[in-house]
Automatic annotation (TrEMBL):
This is Putative hydrolase. Coiled coil: none annotated. Keywords: Hydrolase. The lineage of its organism: Eukaryota, Fungi, Dikarya, Ascomycota, Pezizomycotina. InterPro entries: AB_hydrolase_1 (IPR000073), AB_hydrolase_fold (IPR029058), Epox_hydrolase-like (IPR000639).
């Protein structure tokens, strides 16, 4: 099943196309948030809670942090949803465990589950960018009954990616920056590749903010994710994709100027999404498509969530 565009899309676009990002920002009023800390085993997780309504969780990527959603997405979606923006483990102020094994996909899944349980939420819609996109896919695979809808933003599609990184020269070239991240050990200088990624953030103010956050560190936990989860050379391994079919309605948002993930990630999607998938491209947007073109991103996600809600009745 392929999800159609939301019925209200043409009306939205007639408005959005004439609104500059500056004017769009003026119409967004950021609500006050509640900072919450919970424990999951020996890890403390921090997140901020906004608004009221169905639960909607935004999960950041790397190099980034939870406030990446605060400028554009929180003020838009907190009008209709309870919005949570967690800091992943390894990202201060959440705990930064020293052991690389603490950064397994199972532990990230457990963290999201702990947040839902703390909120006493039966289900949530979950948005993930970059690393966060991988985390939310693993969560939806493990706990589809807890996911209302899934939104993936400039991230890998797991079953496609695990094959591309092993056998596709283009994806291997795009991922070459990760080799230095995987080789990182606690206490090493921050790899230059991290600053190269930061340089691709188009907004100067936000680029400076995230750079300061990364330099303050510690960066150990952020890179331990790559140590524990990311494929590394030598490539050419046959990795099983068994059990990687998502069983929740899914929207994929793809900024076409992404330097890091091949567009081949989005080939043959229907076979990997049992409850339907919709792919939206954002021409000219970078890896941070939700920041580059927030009007389009917000409208597409809002329309998708409304469609899922209508179909579920």
């Amino acid at each position: 099943m392929l999800y159609p565009p939301p019925r209200r899309q043409s009306h939205y676009w007639s408005t959005c196309r004439i609104i500059t990002q500056e004017l769009y920002l003026r119409n967004l009023v950021s609500p006050a948030g509640e900072d919450i800390a919970i424990t999951n085993g020996n890890v403390t997780l921090h997140y901020t809670k906004y608004g009221r309504g169905p639960l909607l969780i935004f999960v950041h990527g790397f190099p980034d942090h939870a406030d990446t959603w605060a400028t554009f997405q929180v003020p838009f979606f907190a009008r209709t949803h309870t919005v949570l923006t967690p800091y992943l483990r390894g990202y201060p102020p959440s705990s930064v465990p020293a052991d690389v094994s603490a950064y397994s996909s199972a532990n990230f899944v457990s963290d999201l589950l702990a947040i839902l349980d703390h909120e006493k939420a039966e289900k949530a819609s979950i948005v993930g960018h970059d690393v966060g996109g991988g985390v939310v896919q693993y969560f939806a695979l493990a706990h589809p009954e807890r996911v209302e809808a899934l939104v993936l933003v400039n991230t890998v599609v797991l079953p496609n990616f695990v094959r591309l990184i092993e056998f596709d020269p283009d994806q291997e070239y795009r991922a070459k920056y990760t080799i230095a991240l995987e080789a990182y050990h606690a206490g090493d200088p921050v790899p230059q590749q991290v600053f190269d990624i930061l340089a691709s953030i188009r907004n100067e103010t936000y680029r400076a903010e995230v750079t300061k956050y990364i330099e303050k560190g510690p960066i150990d936990g952020m890179l331990h994710f790559y140590n524990d989860n990311y494929p590394e050379p030598p490539y050419g391994k046959n990795i099983s994709t068994a059990g990687m079919v998502e069983k929740v309605p899914t929207l994929i948002v793809w900024g076409t100027d992404d330097q890091y993930f091949s567009p081949k990630n989005y080939d043959g999607l229907a076979g990997w999404f049992e409850k339907g998938v919709r792919l939206v491209t954002v021409p000219g947007a970078s890896h941070w498509s939700f920041r580059d073109q927030p009007e389009k991103f917000n409208v597409e996600v809002d329309g998708f969530l409304r469609t899922v809600g209508e179909l579920r009745g």
